[in-house]
Model the fold of this input.
Amino acid sequence: MDIGKELAKVGERAPMLSERHYLDISAYLSTLLQHYKNGDIALDGAVDIITDLFISFDAGNISEIGNTVKFPEKIPTSKKAVPEHGGNWPSKTGNPSGGNRSNASSFDN
Done:
C-alpha cells in the first residue's frame, strides 16, 4: 500500500494521522498478529488491543495512539496476563468442578 496515495485520497480534510503513524501502526499490528499466530496472545486479547486503538482514534487521542504503536514490544501477551487454565483451575482434591470442592459455591445450603 502506498501510504502517500492513500493520504492524498482523504482530500478535503486534513488527515489525523501522519505517515509515521501509519508505518508505526503497520509494524505494531504485524507484531500483534505474530503474537497471536505464535499463541502468545489469545484472540480476544488481540481484539481488545485493536478496539482500544479505535476508541483512542474515535476520541481524537492521536498522541495516545502514537505512543502505543511506537512500542510493539510492550504488547501484553496472555502468557503474562492470563492463567494457563483461564481461571478454571483443576481440583486439588480430585473432585470434579463444583461438587465437594471447598472453593466451589453451593446453592444447596
